[in-house]
Amino acid sequence: MPKTLVWELSRWRNAEASRLGATPPIPENSITKPPSAELAPGQMDTDSLPPYEVLDALLDDYVEQDMGTAELIAAGHDPELVERVVRLVDTAEYKRRQYPPGPKISQKNFGRDRRLPITNRWREPRP
């Protein structure tokens, strides 16, 4: 699920709780705090990633819309960012294979709907 959608759903969930007179279940700091891998003090996701609005749009086109590298660049995404993000997504495929099955919340999910070969180090072809 894209990070921007997580924030949107979190705000909605808290608003619904408030509307019903209940305590919002998601701490506001969890929604407003800048994302961080928390691997090092002061490290932020934006140190190595573009803003999530840009990243989520690129990931949606690559994963959900099945666009290849050339199509992503033609759609107006930054070529250097496309190559970097596609490489990161593809090289992390083995990690997704280790996850237990989860609920499907979009048209495609990693796994059954989006299979990439990992045994021969397959990568998305460069334009």
Would you give an account of this structure?
With 127 residues, the chain is mainly alpha-helical. The protein contains 6 helices and no strands. It has helices at residues 3-19, 28-32, 52-64, 69-74, 79-91, 93-97.
Q: What would you say about this model in short?
A:
This protein has 127 residues and is mainly alpha-helical. The model has no long low-confidence stretch (mean pLDDT 84).
Distance between the termini: 27 Å
- Into which percentage range does the β-strand content fall? under 5%
Based on helices, strands and strand pairing, what is the structural class?
A: mainly alpha
Helical content stands at: 40-55%
**Overall geometry:** globular
Tally the helices: 6
Describe the largest sheet. Answer: none
